[in-house]
Design brief:
Distance between the termini: 30 Å
Radius of gyration: 17 Å
Strand content: 5-15%
Number of strands: 7
Order of helices and strands: EHEHEHEHEHHEHE
Helix content: 40-55%
Strand order of the largest sheet: 3-2-1-4-5-6-7
Structural class: alpha/beta
Length: 253
Amino acid sequence: MAPALRDLDGKTALVTGAGRNIGRAIALELAGAGARVVLNTRRDRAEIDAVKAEIEARGGTALVAVADVTDPEAVAAMVDAATAAFGRLDILVNNAAIRREAPIDAIDLAQWREIMSVILDGAFICVKACLAALRASGAASIVNIGGLSGHTGAAGRPHVVAAKSGLVGLTRALAHDLAPDRITVNCVVPGLIDTVRKASSSVMPAHAKDHRTLTGGKGASQDIAAAVHYLVGPGARYVTGQSLHVNGGAYLG
């Protein structure tokens, strides 16, 4: 369902990893609020085209951008395409991520760097590429999508926990650096969210079994999208450097 408020009319948003689950929900939410949305995917064209079609069927505007967030040249080209199409960029949502589970003994340096490159390096690369356009906005927002295990810790995912924890530090540092440019920077931290997993990763993450919500059951991707909408909207201009936990009380941070 589209948001009741069209408080993002005239703005342009870039959402990485927008093809499914939380990324898709964020893209639909922002488009429903009036933003033109640049939909990023690394390679799944059919998936991202379906999101674009869904946005357009609801009367919104979207642009597909296939780019690996770990490739600075590809990201720069994506941002150039976005600004060429829409003339501006006001919102960046760093959602792209990969999550593996393995004990530390089974993780080699290449596997460690694979996780870090997408979650942490990818956010850095996207921020750098978007900075000029975000500064020109005059009231821009960056939202990084964190993770519950980045705050609680978890067995079997030291690389993921380290990368998601790094996003919190990056959020706080950028909030300081970019405040003079009227750019807010925040982190939304999903808890136990009911998402559809690909066949290759269909098993529930082990750490999810260690957490219980106060509200009962799992949250929905839309719960995360609503939090992002708030942080990039006009009512959150006084909020920056924060981690907003959306987890039904599974973690009280």
